[in-house]
C-alpha cells in the first residue's frame, strides 16, 4: 500500500514537472493575463473583496436603522392614540379655570403633533431608504444607509417632543381632576419620571458618543480604487491573519487561472484540479504529448 502511494505521488510530480516545462515553453508575450502585474492584480482583487464586505456592512446598517425606526414609530403611534383620547374623551366642568384647561389642551396637542410627526418621518425614511438601497443605482446602499443615519436625530427629537407633551398634559390634568394633595403627589411622580428619563438619555448618549472624524468611513473604501487605511479594514472585521490568508488564496487562484488560460490557448486539455486535506491546491495537467511521451 505504501509503495502504491509513493508511486502515485511520484507519477503526479513527474506530470507536474512535464506540464510546467510545456507551459514554460509557450509564448507568454501574447497572453493578456501574463501582462497584468501580480501585485496589482492581487491588490485589485482584494479591493473588490473589501468593497463587497463594505456593501454588506452598509446593508446590515440599513436593516438595523429600519428596525430601530420601526420600534420608535410603533411607540409613537400608541402615544398619538392616547393624545387623541386625551383631547376627545376628557371633558371639564364649566367653572374650570380657562388657563389650566388651555394649558392641558396645548400640551395634549403637542403630544399628538410630535408623535404624528415621528410616525410620518419613520414611514417616509423606511420606505424611501430601503427602496433606494435595494433598487437604486450603483452605490445607492451607501447613500441610503447614510441618509437614514442622518434622519435619526430628527425622528428621536419628534418622539421626545411627544413624550414631553404627554407628561406635561398628564401633570396639568392631575391638578384639574384631583384634590390638591393627590395632585401634588402625581406632580412629584411625573417630574421624577421626566428627570429620570432625561438623566438616563444623557448618560446613554455620553456612553455611546463618538466623533465622526475618528471613525473609519466605508464610503472611502467603496469610492476608491485601492484599499484604504488600516482602520477601514478593521471596521470591516478583517484582521491581519485573515488578510494574509486572503492574499495567499488570491495568489493560488491567480496561478490556477493563469495555467488554465495558457492550457486553453495552446491546446492543453484534460485538466484535473485537486485539493489536499491541508487546503493547498494541486494542479495537474495531463496532455496527450506528455502521456504518450512518458508512457
Tell me the CATH topology of the domain at 66-229: Butyryl-CoA Dehydrogenase, subunit A, domain 3
Strand order of the largest sheet: 1-2
Q: Ends: how far apart?
A: 22 Å
What share of residues is helical?
A: over 70%
Share in β-strands: under 5%
Radius of gyration, in Å, reads 34 Å
Structural class: mainly alpha
Structural overview:
The chain has 295 residues and is mainly α. The protein has a domain of 164 residues: Up-down Bundle (Butyryl-CoA Dehydrogenase, subunit A, domain 3). Helices cover 75% and strands 3% of the residues. It has ten helices and two strands, in the order H-H-H-H-H-H-H-H-H-E-E-H. A two-stranded antiparallel sheet has the order 1-2. A hairpin with a 5-residue loop joins strand 1 and strand 2. Helix 3 packs antiparallel against helix 4. The longest helix has 51 residues. The radius of gyration is 34 Å and the shape is elongated. The N terminus and C terminus are likely disordered.
Brief description of this entry?
The protein is mostly helical and 295 residues long. It has helices at 2-24, 38-88, 98-135, 140-150, 152-177, 180-207, 218-223, 230-235, 240-265, 288-294, and strands spanning 271-275, 281-285. It has a domain at 66-229: Butyryl-CoA Dehydrogenase, subunit A, domain 3 (Up-down Bundle).
Helices and strands, with pairings:
Elements: H1 2-24, H2 38-88, H3 98-135, H4 140-150, H5 152-177, H6 180-207, H7 218-223, H8 230-235, H9 240-265, E1 271-275, E2 281-285, H10 288-294
Helix pairs in contact: 2-3, 2-4, 2-5, 2-9, 3-4, 3-5, 5-6
